Amino acid sequence: MSHAYKTKNILVTMGDDFNYQDAGMWFNNLDRLIKTNRDSSASHRVNDFLDYANEASKRYKTKNVLITMGGDFTYQDAGMWYNNLDKLIKHTNLKSAKEGLGIKAFYSTPDCYLKAVRNAFPSLPTKQDDFFPYASDPTAYWTGYFTSRPTTKYFERESNAFLQMVKNLQVMLNLPKHNQFVIDELKSAMGVMQHHDAITGTEKQHVAHDYERILNNALEDVMIVPNQAYNKVLKAKGYEGPELEYKRCRLNESSCSISEQKKAFTVTIFNPLAWSVTEPIRIPVVDGSYTIKGPNAKEIQYQILDVPESVKNIPTRQSLATHELIFIVKLKPLSFQSYHVTKNEKTKRNIKTQKERKNDFYTNLNDYWTNLKTPIDIKNLEDKENRRIQDTICNENLEIKDRNLDFDVLKSSNDGVSEDILKLEQIIRDAKRNTEKEQKNLAKKLNYPSLNEEEMRMLSDEPTVVNMFEDKYIENQAMKLRLDNKLDIITLLENKKSLNFAIKLYYWSACFGDNTNTTERSSGAYIFRPNITKPIELSILHSEIKHGPLVSELRTIYEGNVTSTTRLYTDIDFIEVDFTVGPIPIDDNIGKEYIIKYITDINNNGIFYTDSNGRQMLKRKLNERPQFNLTLAEPIAGNYYPVTNKIYIEDSDNRLSVLTDRSQGGSSLNNGEIEIMLHRRLLHDDAFGVGEALNEVLNNKGLVVRGTQRILTKKSDLLERKRVLEFHYKPIILFADAENLNLSNDHRFVGLYSVPDGVHLLSIESWGDTSLLLRIENYLEKSINSTIEVNLSDLFNFIKINTFKETTLAANQWMDEYEKLNWTTDNESFNESNEFNNDDGFKVKIKAKQIRTFIIEYDYV
């Protein structure tokens, strides 16, 4: 039936029968049938066709019945099909004319169909939600592809941000026009990635590899654009050395040959957004000491942390990096700036002194004490269990890992030994005995339960013997995460508010069958169908905390080849969760679908919200659909929705939002919980066309997925929308070897003046020799003051705008030539006319959720 719904005025028509007519429904070898039995078989086929058209017309609002032809695995011989369709149309119209049926069959197009419906002036029903999740039978919910091939989905997201960057740089720096060829190559590759069997992950494995090959080649070719742009600015700042050669790095694998192998390198970071952003940067390096200088030659604070073993063990990773160099950057709107990183040389040992020390031999221990250049204070040796001390010869740090000192001071003879030395020996022996005794007592005490202060107060009248432990936290200026004695997160503290909070990992075991009927449906690339009603929790094997001046981390290792790292960065208002999943074990011959859960005490009553392709937030209700009564044979899969960028739950007091770094499937299956699927490894096909199981492997090892999610806790739509865009269009980092180069020059470029909150520059790209295409989005939610005025003449600082003209969204038609259609709905009259005819010169107004597109004529300044 035909539906229209008002989400920025879209007319939607649904076919009567899923999506296309079954090949051969009305004819097989129609030429032969007509020739052999003109009166019987041909008439029978035409009658079937007319019966179908009459029945379908009952479900349409007008007398125009849309019959679609074409579909997967059918209509592959175009010549045969068009011959048959020609004859079907001819014989149908002959029969209708002879018998006065009032039916006319003809070839049509979407435009012609739309015009015919419009001319009938129907009153159309409205639909405010979307069509997710959908199913083709009671057990076949197409919700698995929301997550299938997660690395391909991430690659597409990352490449889109790269495409926007090169389009921006081409215009901002007035680069050579021939660059458009490589930019168009990347556009084409990204277009291929939008195919419904590419971004969805529902292609065969070798096809997925081919998509990735095409996209990777395009990215390599387009590197000419940032190389030209960054070197052009560098030379304009007075640099006279050789050009830098910038490279991409696989930062999702903590891998970068330049930062790992070079003693000095440049990191150039591009911000594609129309506002300033603060972003943590993590650079793969070999352990050591470094100096980082910003674009103004000011030294930047950094922190260095080891790369987790789970990342080092990613099968595709080829890297020498053992650590990550972490620093936080503040980037201006539509800008790039460079940071110069130098690895500090180690101080070399005094070789002469080393040789002398190697031959030291004392027959009398008093000679050793006499020859010491620096006296040792024995009592200070027990200050800390891990105490850094300074070598008397060199400047390298040494670490005492075992404080149980065992000196055999008088092994050979007591001759010449002073009484002080004998006393020292006795002190050491007594200390060792006391330490061993304390350790035994401590082991006994650890058998008692450990409680914190609050729990101690609750049990103050109980006779049970307990030990009190100090609460552990990871925290920053905005929030705290309190941990229990097992290092599980139990509470989130923010602005004097406390929220019960936990992060846990699970998996769904997958159904498998021969797909001959609905009860035998397998989970596959398209279909998510678990064979259990509750997911299986993954046990924690080990946890540890890493504290530092810029970031604190809780690292957790789970069974089943899963890890998570929960981070809080200094002065940053989100929680970051980094995960690695895989290889998913299949030794039991059962496919598995891994999920992460964020568990709170928020009372959301089965209501949660997901984004509609990164823009409008849609309300979801567990086990319900807005426009019909729902009966679910698959209560898990039937409540999964696509999460392009964000999912959240809330009650009157709290909200928890999770931002994703790629498209994933998610839900809120239990009160207070957000569940997101991270990775799938299946052993059977679901019989919807892929023809092979979703089992991604390399060298017989299952795929490892690394990803990131960010958690927000404030109830602020504006803040959330900005954080969503900042995560979707993360600053792009490129690296260049800078050994033996003098890069003291100020290397940065800012292309934009300030813009009002709510403005997102969706597209900036060349449009001919002296024109550019500009798309501006107002990302605010609709409210009284949500309309924004933008002065185009005060937008960019690198061009002077001469004239501009508005086009339709696709930039294929001038807006003043666009014919707008008025529709009548069942509950109101609906007008698509442009509300903004009061633009004032270069000042244009943009309403909430609106995108306006302009072609701009300009000159460089």
Describe this entry's structure for a reader:
The protein is of the alpha+beta class and 861 residues long. Among the domains are: 2-128, no CATH class; 351-445, no CATH class; 759-860, Immunoglobulin-like (Sandwich), CATH 2.60.40.1360. Helices cover 22% and strands 29% of the residues. The protein has 15 helices and 46 strands. Strands 17, 18, 19, 20, 21, 26, 29, 32 and 33 form a 9-stranded antiparallel beta sheet that branches. Strands 22-23-24-25-36-31-30-27-28 form a 9-stranded antiparallel beta sheet. Strands 6, 7, 9, 12, 37 and 38 form a 6-stranded antiparallel beta sheet that branches. A hairpin with a 5-residue loop joins strand 24 and strand 25. Helix 2 (41-57) packs across helix 3 (78-99), helix 5 (150-172) packs parallel to helix 7 (205-221) and helix 6 runs antiparallel to helix 7. It is globular. The two termini are 56 Å apart. The model is unreliable at 1-7, 351-359, 378-414, 442-450, 463-469 and 829-834 (pLDDT under 50). Its cofactor is Zn(2+). InterPro entries: Gal_mutarotase_sf_dom, GH38_C, Glyco_hydro/deAcase_b/a-brl, Glyco_hydro_38_C, Glyco_hydro_38_cen, Glyco_hydro_38_cen_sf, Glyco_hydro_38_N, Glyco_hydro_38_N_sf. Belongs to the glycosyl hydrolase 38 family.
